[in-house]
Amino acid sequence: MRIDILTIFPEMFDGPFSHSIIKRAKEKDLVEIHLHNIRDYSTDKHRRVDNYPFGGGAGMVMMIDPILRCIEELKKKNEYDEVIFLTPDGKRFEQTAANKLSTMKNIILLCGHYKGIDERLREQVITREISIGDYVLSGGELAAAVVTDSIVRLLPGVLGDETSALSDSFQDGLLSPPVYTRPADYKGWKVPDILLSGHDRKIAEWRHEKAVERTQKRRPDLLK
Ligand code: 6GU
Fold first, then answer.
1. Closest Cα to atom 3, ligand 1: which residue?
2. Any idea which architecture 2-152 has in CATH?
3. What is the C-alpha separation between 134 and 201, in angstroms, rounded?
4. pLDDT for residue 170
């Protein structure tokens, strides 16, 4: 899979994409992530990418031209399944959308800033709009990193069996059960006996029971 990210802060992705699972996925050529600085596509001598909103009001709006030039350049070389805009007024991102995006060949993620992007881009070019939750971030970059991480970990070969995405919270509509590791008794804090019993079927039943219990208590909305 190929993911192209359009941003005015490409350096913001250096950290999240240089460690752990995404780093390994890139090294194994399971994903190609390309960062594009929207400013590089500005034809303005000051490399401007934003301007005042028509009709007045506070805040700046990202202009059509640099963003469209970048997207058109990419579309000459690759075919894209989706051109996604990260925005707090987009559809709230959930596991089902991550699953769907992970089946795609090439996608573009556009990170918004200021008061947003010129509406005509949303009407003419954007195919999907995503928000990662009901709170406001300073820009779309952290949201794009979150969406990218959720997609890349689902790509075949990225996770080993032992960390399979199938056992994630939400994949089966339930939160994950509690987990424990050594020592079995930490200064009197004990691990449930069942987990030490070696009885695989009973352990699986216990885990399912705890997952349901936890979901009922913390996220009853998931059970509806
Ligand atoms: Cl995608 N962008 C911004 N700026 N804020 C957000 C968001 C996105 N999702 C939740 N809050």
1. 137
2. 3-Layer(aba) Sandwich (3.40)
3. 40
4. 81
